[in-house]
Design goal:
Blueprint: E1 3-4, E2 15-20, E3 26-30, E4 35-36, E5 41-43, H1 45-51, E6 66-80, E7 95-109, E8 114-121, E9 127-130, H2 137-140, E10 154-156, E11 173-177, E12 182-194, E13 203-215, E14 227-230, H3 244-248, E15 259-263, E16 272-276
Parallel strand pairs: 8-14, 9-13
Antiparallel strand pairs: 1-4, 2-3, 2-11, 5-15, 6-7, 6-16, 7-8, 7-12, 9-14, 10-12, 11-12, 12-13, 15-16
């Protein structure tokens, strides 16, 4: 079977847990969403879920939107086939291969901009970028964020957006454990732009994210992208300020909290794409229009 999904990292197909250090709170989340491939499928589901009923009275009119072309990374995973209900206790489960396609694109972070390739992941709720503080080879093989090089970077002490004071060393971190990988990150806020380096126009907003200081060698070592751009809903994030969709809902954002995916047929000579702030009706499959 062929499963195309923008929702999970290779081999990280089951449960993920997020743990905030210095706190007993542990939130378990499941990142096991997928979609059967249909030609010319456009998915604006996440945007529609979060945008419904969010327009507050007197909220500023927003018109900024941008469509970003996506690259594809295909991996093969082995999954067990469920046994029939009447299977004997000694029955062994067969396994089958599935092809998992992940979609990633380029974002710019900070001032001046630092470019990163990130996988757009609807099965998680945090933006995660490796930082220069992570000196292990798994990080150094990818582009790393340098907060000292950005005039708009704000180091955060806690998830409630409290800035880290000069000389302060006491700060919270979050560890995210996936099925076969783990990472730990500090809290940072900076500007993010879509379109820089790939278009003459761009759309920008600010976002809180996890700056990775440690991560496991597998599976991150083999991945072609630098970080993870979580697009899941609020319950999958470290906190409200770390949820990208929630940030778009604020009055400070010029981008509507709407996100649309277009996933191309692999035989078609066109790009898959993600649109922020809107969705493209012409990308809908004919039966869905």
């Amino acid at each position: 079977s062929d499963v195309r999904s923008a929702t999970h990292l290779p081999h990280l197909l089951r449960a993920a847990a997020m743990k905030r250090q210095r706190s007993p709170t542990v939130a378990a989340v499941t990142a096991d969403h997928g979609c059967r491939w249909r030609p010319r499928l456009s998915t604006a589901l996440w945007g529609m879920l979060v945008s419904a009923g969010t327009a507050a009275a007197g909220a500023p009119r927003r018109s900024a939107s941008f469509t970003l072309p996506l690259k594809e990374y295909v991996s093969i995973a082995q999954v067990p086939v469920p046994l029939p209900r009447n299977a004997p206790p000694t029955a062994r489960r067969a396994r089958r291969q599935i092809h998992v396609t992940e979609y990633y694109g380029k974002i710019a972070v900070g001032s001046p901009p630092q470019l990163f390739d990130v996988v757009f992941d609807t099965g998680s709720g945090n933006i995660v970028l490796p930082t220069i503080k992570c000196s292990e080879e798994v990080c150094s093989r990818h582009r790393r964020y340098r907060s000292q090089s950005s005039s708009t970077a704000v180091q955060l002490a806690y998830e409630d957006d409290t800035p880290l004071e000069k000389g302060q060393t006491d700060r919270d971190t979050t560890s995210i454990t996936y099925g076969t990988g783990k990472l730990t990150g500090e809290y940072i806020r900076d500007g993010m732009c879509f379109g820089y380096g790939v278009s003459k126009s761009q759309v920008c907003t600010s976002a809180d994210f996890l700056g990775v200081t440690q991560e496991s060698r597998f599976p991150f070592m083999e991945l072609p992208f630098d970080g993870i751009f979580g697009l899941g809903l609020l319950g999958l994030s470290t906190g409200p300020n770390f949820n990208f969709i929630n940030r778009l809902k604020s009055n400070e954002s010029k981008i509507e909290p709407v996100i649309g995916f277009f996933l191309r047929a692999l035989t078609a000579d066109e790009d898959s794409e993600i649109t922020f702030g809107s969705w493209r009706p012409e990308r809908l499959w004919a039966r869905e229009q």
